[in-house]
Write a structure and sequence with these properties.
Helices cover 42% and strands 17% of the residues. With 332 residues, it is an alpha/beta fold. Helix 9 (281-291) crosses helix 10 (293-331).
Length: 332
């Protein structure tokens, strides 16, 4: 009978050659491999919310980011219908697989936001939706069957700012201030191809100044560890300086200088979506998918959800104490 400890098939860790004949080698150095295998087998969830007025290219950008078509069944409304429309919450879910890693991506859209004549408190349905997802997770977490909890908490909100104003509008300020304690907000300067490079720089500075002036807490990039390599530190610094991301979205493939690229064709030339010299699309995708997706989930779990959970527990405790005091008074 073989009593050796190990893994079957191709999953045996390559630690014997590294350990050699070292009798002091225990083997817990393979723990990261175990966590990695378990995570890949389970798959990952990520919920992204997009908000902003109609016509700023939200759906086009989402399709460009994840190379998919989430809005094929969407019905486009006319101008009169949009004015009469109330804010809705719609969800689009898709399973994406890349190199054996599965991602369950949920896009939460907010059609009707900012389109009415009177937009007073039009952010309320959005805030209520985020709170509802926290509430559902809290109930599932407190229930008897906690093994397969579906995580529908909103991990990031891309908020689209119009390029045609002089900075933030009152609605932009009201929305972000109402939601910055609930969700990670990443501001987006939409349709950057309508602006010249100096105008983009000016609007970015203006928006950053107003965000600070109004005390809006957008998503904060974590500081790099001291042992990170210089290239990663430079990349991280470039991402921080790009806020708000000036983006262009396009799902059309055009030919530029003998190459086929995704972009927009104008009489004066071609705007390439994935050209860092034209817009911040690549930086946004890098931040959202390649470098900070897990941190966005961690901040949601450790900060926003924990704040909601603490409030719920405090409210429940107050109710219990109040009921106990009422019973004590009735006995006396």
């Amino acid at each position: 009978m073989d009593r050796s400890l190990g893994w079957q098939g191709n999953s045996v860790p390559e630690d014997r050659t590294e350990a050699g004949d070292d009798k002091e080698y225990v083997g817990f150095a393979t723990l990261p491999n175990q966590v990695h295998r378990k995570s890949v087998k389970k798959g990952f969830d990520f919920t992204l919310m997009v908000a902003g007025e109609s016509g700023l290219g939200k759906s086009t950008l989402v399709n460009s980011l994840f190379l998919t078509d989430l809005y094929r069944d969407r019905k486009l409304l006319g101008a009169e219908e949009r004015i009469m429309q109330t804010v809705e919450i719609t969800k689009h879910a898709v399973d994406i697989e890349e190199k054996g890693v599965r991602l369950r991506l949920t896009i939460v859209d907010t059609p009707g936001f900012g389109d009415a004549v009177n937009n007073t408190e039009c952010w309320k349905p959005v805030a209520e939706y985020i709170d509802q997802q926290f509430e559902q997770y809290f109930r599932d977490e407190s229930g008897l069957n906690r093994k397969n909890i579906q995580d529908n908490r909103v991990h990031c909100c891309l908020y689209f700012i119009s390029p045609f104003g002089h900075g933030l509008r009152p609605l932009d300020v009201e929305f972000m201030k109402a939601l910055h304690q609930r969700v990670n907000i990443v501001p987006i300067l939409a349709k950057a191809d309508t602006l010249t490079p100096p105008e983009v720089d000016h609007k970015k500075r203006k928006i950053r100044e107003e965000i600070e002036h109004f005390g809006i807490k957008i998503y904060q990039f974590p500081d790099c560890d001291s042992d990170e390599d210089e290239d990663f530190k430079l990349q991280d610094q470039a991402l921080k300086e790009s806020i708000p991301f000036a983006v262009i979205g396009s799902n059309t493939v055009v030919e530029a200088r003998g190459r086929r690229v995704r972009g927009r064709l104008y009489p004066w030339g071609i705007v390439e979506v994935e050209n860092p010299g034209h817009c911040d699309f690549v930086k946004l995708r890098t931040m959202l998918v390649r470098t900070h997706m897990q941190d966005l989930k961690d901040v949601t779990r450790e900060t926003h959800y924990e704040n909601y959970r603490a409030q719920c527990i405090q409210s429940m405790t107050r109710l219990v104490v109040k009921e106990r005091n009422r019973k004590d008074r009735s006995r006396n």
